[in-house]
Amino acid sequence: MKCPNCQSAEVGRIGEQEYYCWSCFLEMAYIDGQLHVREIEEDGSLSSLDDLFFDGR
Ligand SMILES: [Zn+2]
Question: Which residues are near ligand 1, the ion (C-beta closer than 5 Å)?
Fold first, then answer.
């Protein structure tokens, strides 16, 4: 798969349904068949970037 943010193929699998882009450091997860994009903040928390990638959800 490719990263939806930077189109890089440097995406590694980090969990059952979770992927991580080593190029732009985004985390992606498939939840209920939908791809969600999250960013790991400096303090370790996750913030959703779905609004940036998926309009109308
Ligand atoms: Zn990326």
Answer: 3, 5-6, 8, 21, 23-24
Q: Considering its fold, how many domains does the chain have in total?
A: 1
CA diameter of the chain: 29
Q: Tell me, yes or no, whether 45 lies in a domain.
A: yes
Distance 42 CA to ligand 1 centre (A): 17
Residue 6 lies in a domain: no
pLDDT tens digits, 2-57: 998 999 999 999 999 999 999 999 999 988 989 899 998 889 898 999 988 877 55
